[in-house]
Structures are given as C-alpha cells and as structure tokens.
Amino acid sequence: MKKLTIIYLSNGGNVEVLANHIAKGAKDAGAQVLLKLVSEASVEDVTNADVVAFGSPSMDNNNIDQKEMQPFIDKFKLIPVNNKITGLFGSYGWDNGEFMNKWVSLMKEYEFNVVQNITVNEAPTNEQLVKAEEMGKSLVK
Ligand SMILES: Cc1cc2nc3c(=O)[nH]c(=O)nc-3n(C[C@H](O)[C@H](O)[C@H](O)COP(=O)(O)O)c2cc1C
Fold first, then answer.
1. DSSP assignment of 61-88, as one string?
2. Name one GO molecular function term (predicted).
3. Whether the CB of 13 sits within 6 Å of ligand 1
4. Best CA proximity match to 72, nearest among 87, 95, 56
5. Measured between alpha carbons, how far apart are the two ends of the chain, in Å?
6. 11 C-beta closer than 6 A to ligand 1
7. Residue 113: which pLDDT band, with cuts at 50, 70 and 90?
8. pLDDT, tens digit, for every residue of 82-103?
9. Distance CA 56, CA 63 (A)
C-alpha cells in the first residue's frame, strides 16, 4: 500500500477543499493518506512517504505562502528527497498560476520529482474537484 502525505496551507478554504479531494482520490485507490496542515507537519512526514503533495494559495506577491510553506519547503534544500514523486496544488486570485510555475521550478531544484500540478482561480469548480481526485488516484498508482 502506498503512503501519500499531503501538506497544505489554506486561509480561506479554497486550497483545503483541493487537499480533501486529492486525499479522497488516493484513499479510493487504496493508499494510506496522511493529511496535515503545514503548521503541524514534520520533515519525517515527507521523508517517510512514498509520494507527497503540497498545497498553497498564491500569497505575498504571487508566491507560495512565505510565512509557513516557504520555510517548510526550504528545509529540503539540505535534506535529500531522492526524486520523490510529488504533486503540487494551489489557488490564486489574479496571478494566473505564476506562483505555481515558480513553485514547480523550486521543487525540482530541491530534487522533488514534480509529476503533476493543479491550479485554480479562487474556489475550485466541480470539474476541478474531479481533477483533484484524479490527481490523488494517479499519484499513488
Ligand atoms: C493576504 C492575501 C494575499 C494574496 N496575495 C495574492 C497574490 O499575491 N497573488 C494572487 O494571485 N492571489 C493572491 N491572493 C488570493 C488568494 O491566492 C486566493 O484567494 C486563494 O483562493 C486563497 O486560497 P485559500 O482560500 O486556500 O486561502 C491573496 C489573498 C490574500 C488574502
């Protein structure tokens, strides 16, 4: 059984609903899922997982959240993740996904193997929630 850890930050709930749907998809596919707020997550939650997914809103001038998510991610500058399979998800207000492009590049630099990402404008549509479930399923295949 694959172990998926999902770590996210959400102020208004838009990213959280994506996290929940990714979790549902992965569970339906038979995976063991650990769903955590970044404020409660540890490095081991990432290193012990077969697959990881991270979610953040676009904040702080079209970047991922700089108070909690960025410092958490930056820990992996020095901790090896050995090309762990990774999905990224997030929501933006006006940047059209610019924050996600920057985030994908950063994660690749830290040797996460980013295989999928999903971005939505504000609240996800029903169609986007289905995509989030599919992402959960395919991450744990
Ligand atoms: C304080 C604050 C800063 C934000 N900064 C940006 C930004 O720089 N670029 C952007 O596209 N959206 C920005 N947004 C919009 C959020 O990314 C968007 O509302 C998102 O859906 C929030 O996700 P959440 O409900 O999970 O917190 C900002 C929102 C807030 C409240």
1. TTEE-TTTHHHHHHGGGTS--TTEEEEE
2. oxidoreductase activity, acting on NAD(P)H
3. yes
4. 56
5. 10
6. yes
7. very high
8. 999 999 999 999 999 999 999 9
9. 9
Find out whether the beta carbon of 14 lies less than 6 Å from any atom of ligand 1. Answer: yes
How does residue 6 score in pLDDT terms, banded at 50, 70 and 90?
very high
Written as six digits, the tokens of 95 are: 């940047």
Closest atom of ligand 1 to 63 CA is 8
Q: Looking at the domain covering 3-139, what would its CATH class be? A: alpha beta
Phi and psi at residue 115, in whole multiples of 5°? Answer: -100, -20
Burial of 86 (0-12, 13-18, 19+ CB in 10 A): buried
Work out the angle between the directed axes of helices 14-28 and 126-139 (0-180°, nearest 10). Answer: 50
